[in-house]
Amino acid sequence: MENFEINYSLEELKKRTHKDYLSTKKMLDIDAPEYQNLADGDKKALKNLVKAAFFIEKIYHQLDNRKNIEFKEFLRKEILKGNERAELTKILFDAQKGMCAIDRESTKINLAKGITELPGKGLYPEDLTKEEFHKILIKMLKAGKNEEVRKILNQRSIVERKDDELIAIDYVDYFSDDFRKAAEKLELAADTSTNSQFNEYLRLQAVAIREADPMLDAYADKKWAELQDTPLEFTITRENYADEMTESVIENEELKKLLDEYNIPVISKDFLGARVGIVNKEGTQALLKIKEYLPLLAANMPYHEEYEQNISKDEDAKQTMIDADIVVLAGDVGAYRAGITLAENLPNDDKLSLTIGGGRRNVYHRQIRFISDREKLQKRLDATLDKEQHQYYLDEADHWFTIGHENTHSLGPNRGTDALGKYKSIIEENKADMGSLAFLDILEEKGMYTHEQVLQILVSFAADNFLKSKPTLSQAHRVRSVMQNKYFLENGAIELTKDNKIHVNIDKMIPTAKKMLAEIIRIQLDADFEKGEKYVLDNFIWTNEMEIISQKLKEIDKNLNGRTDSPLARMLLKS
Predict the structure, then answer these.
(1) Model confidence over 410-469: pLDDT tens digits?
(2) Which of 14, 353, 382, 441 is close enough to 358 for a disulfide, judged by CB 3.0 to 4.6 Å?
(3) Distance of alpha carbon 453 from alpha carbon 380, whole angstroms
(4) What does the H/E/C string look like for 354-379?
(5) pLDDT of res. 427
(6) For residue 496, what are the β-bridge partners?
(7) Which of 237, 362, 359 is nearest to 310 (CA)?
(8) If DSSP states are collapsed to H, E and C, what string results for 455-481?
(9) According to the model, what pLDDT value does residue 313 have?
(10) Peptide bond into 347 cis (omega under 30)
């Protein structure tokens, strides 16, 4: 085992783990009525789903950083010796699901001395630089090894050195033991769960993580995306926002030309998570109201005649939606790194299930969106939002906005955006936000939202979109906020009052969102890396207005990061 050294002093660790600096989102408790009201068979299934989730988390740790597992074991042994620094470091490790992360003020957090986040995370050899990576791929392509390069640039592979070249190993083969254990738990859950459709999905998913065949994932994804009326929720999440190594290849002109010649797609690698929950029927029914409008929104997307999208204007939307009370968020989906996701729209466009007639599914995380400190919220509004517009701020409006965001992921071009490289995710997240705002007038006209609700969404979005610090370019979800603030300020949709508070010029909000959405879709359609880069960098500007609000936010809110607390999951793991 490597001889690790904890990076932070006891004083710094006490600060970062204090409740003022590390907020907590509590998942379902042991006595939660949502759990108590389940049928006995579903309770038994839930226990096995939680256990499966933690095998997936173990895999995620290794995808994230090859030293995560060793460091976790190091901390365990140090804690047994009474090492207080190790105990506090373990709290941060569990919160951010790994050794290296970033906090809300864009400070990089490295829990062990000398170990920093790598562009290739745990997916590539630790000593592999981007420059060497590109040279090796060029050499392999010129030697006719294009099929091996295709595997290396696939979303499912772990890359290792072999002599002076690289080889790719499918992650199901690489982590076969942990995947097998997870599959066994899924099969046990399917034996007791009361819903036959859910059980069919679990068995398909178990098969898919036993054998390295992407089509098996496609069958599981297709079934998962059809689930609507089930008591339980389980997902192995696969998203690719964090891989900076794979997407770098398109920045090398010689390499990109060779890849185009051999028709080798560049797909960033997936990071795995697992979500276990109990479906909330009331919340789900509220979500489903928007489904009938999705074809209409598809027909109103900019340049819709130029591309195929997942939602057809002529057919029923292949999209299910559920609101879930969360038992546990494990691995990637539960990693609290400056923030944590409120919802997910899956599968992503690179997944095979979408080519065999599969749809998409939105899952919303109820416990993550709950406000835990309303007094602090009010202080923030008093300091940063025009008093006249407090009447329009509503925390539930953030959930309505998120519904629009997740559904917009299903709208717009569903192919070709990988050409945008490291800017692909930033641009896609920006698209989802602007789509959520741009269609509010249509949804109000159709009766989905009242006029007051539209006002609440617009003002709440503007008030919540300002950050405590300028993020790094690797933070797609936060970079888009800076871009939007700059754009809305520039177009007069948002301004600061004389006393430096945010004022929303409501009449300009939706037109500005429509304008930005059209620009984003054009960038995606053109699939030109340089155009995408220019668009991001032209808008990723930290303005004086943002700095003024950020200073106010820092004064009010000391929070640097967060964590999830999952008491029901802990109990089920022990049973």
Answers:
(1) 999 978 888 999 999 999 999 999 999 999 999 999 999 999 999 999 999 999 999 999
(2) 353
(3) 21
(4) HHCCCCEEEEEEHHHHCCCCHHHHHH
(5) 96
(6) 502
(7) 359
(8) HHHHHHHHHHCCCCCCCCCCCHHHHHH
(9) 66
(10) yes
Cα 349 to Cα 43, 221, 353, distances in angstroms: 34, 12, 9
**CA-to-CA distance for 2 and 90, rounded, in angstroms?**
17
Calpha distance 404→449 (Å, rounded)? 12
Residue 135 CA to residue 261 CA, distance in Å, equals 17
From residue 119, give the alpha-carbon distance in Å to each of 266, 395, 410.
16, 36, 28
Return the pLDDT at 414: 79
With beta carbons less than 8 A apart as the criterion, state whether 429 and 259 touch.
no
Angle at 524 (CA atoms; ends 292, 462), nearest 5 degrees = 65
What was the pLDDT predicted at 403?
Answer: 96
426, 434 Cβ separation under 8 angstroms = no
Output helix, strand, coil percentages for the chain, rounded to the nearest 5.
Answer: 55, 15, 30
**The pLDDT of residue 1:** 65
- Give the tokens for residue 359: 């749809």
* Helices of type H across 225-288: 253-261, 281-287
Sole residue written with tokens 């499918």: 170
Tokens of 226: 């059809």
Torsions phi, psi for 332 (to 5 deg): -55, -45
Please, are residues 297 and 345 in contact by the beta-carbon 8 Å criterion?
Answer: no
The length of the chain, given as a count of residues: 575
- 366 band by pLDDT with thresholds 50, 70 and 90: very high
Q: Which residues of 242-255 are buried (b: 16+ CB within 10 A; e: fewer)?
A: bbbbbbbbbebeeb
Give the span between the Cα atoms of 97 and 7, in whole angstroms: 16
**With the CA atoms of 60, 243, 168 and 126 taken in that order, what torsion angle do they form, in degrees rounded to the nearest 10?**
-80
CB-based contacts of 73-79 (< 8 A; 24+ apart in sequence): 73/1, 74/1, 74/2, 74/4, 78/6
Residues 152, 137 contacting (CB under 8 angstroms): yes
Place of tokens 């939202």: 449
Residue 250 structure tokens: 């398109």
